[in-house]
Amino acid sequence: MSETQASFNPLFEAPPGTDVPKPPPVTIDPEEIRQVREELRDRQNIHRGIAGGLISALLAAGAWAVITVTTGFQHEVMAIGVGLLVGLGVRKYGHGLSPPFGVAGALLALFGSLFGNLLGYGAIAARVAGRPIVLFELQLLGNPLAAAKLMGDTFSPIDLGFYLVAIIMGYNISFREYSESDIAKMIVNPSEEEELDV
């Protein structure tokens, strides 16, 4: 057996004697890149982004409360999931390319985290008081002073860390910056746009 046949690895190399032709280099007109960038900017919609983020925040806060009721334990780490979901909601529906989308995502992530924490502690308080959870939560939401007192009584400094992570995630995930190479990939392969957008 010759040395070239022995060193051939079919997982990483083409069979001996076959040359795989390289695709020709693709040149893209800078004007076309500018035009695609303008189309992406025109697609932005801060109102839809905020609506998507708000719905995500409410759903995530509700999930937080359900998990708290199910496990009987308050999970502040859920704030990280809230930040993730809110950021994805703002990004998916707003198609943002600029920091205002990130600010909206950060504020909505903070809102969702505070709301989820309130619903979670409200569920625990309702269970301790032996009252129906939904009725207790509605009464709590209708009385801002009671809600603020509950949040103050259950506050822990570690909550600030989780809120901060949620805010950072909400900001960073809420908008997308496209580089020239990203736009070039979208021009060459239009299906690349969907992969880059999410």
Write the topology of this structure:
Blueprint: H1 3-6, H2 30-43, H3 46-71, H4 78-94, H5 99-129, H6 133-142, H7 144-153, H8 157-173, H9 180-188, H10 192-197
Radius of gyration: 25 Å
Query: Beta fraction of the residues?
Result: under 5%
Taken together, the total number of domains comes to: 1
What is the 3D form?
A: elongated
Please tally the helical runs, counting DSSP H or I stretches of 4 or more residues.
10
Order of helices and strands: HHHHHHHHHH
What structural class do the secondary elements suggest? mainly alpha
Major β-sheet profile: none
Low-confidence stretches: none
Give a count of the beta strands, DSSP E runs of length 2 or more: 0
Question: Helix coverage percent of residues?
Answer: over 70%
Mean pLDDT comes to 86
Q: Overview of this structure, please?
A:
The protein is mainly alpha-helical. It has one domain (about 45-195). The protein is built from ten helices and no strands. The chain has helices spanning about 5, 30-45, 45-70, 80-95, 100-130, 135-140, 145-155, 155-175, 180-190, 190-195. Helix 2 (about 30-45) crosses helix 9 (about 180-190), helix 3 runs antiparallel to helix 4 and helix 5 (about 100-130) runs antiparallel to helix 8 (about 155-175). The N and C termini lie far apart (about 50 Å). About 30% of the residues are buried. The mean pLDDT is about 85.
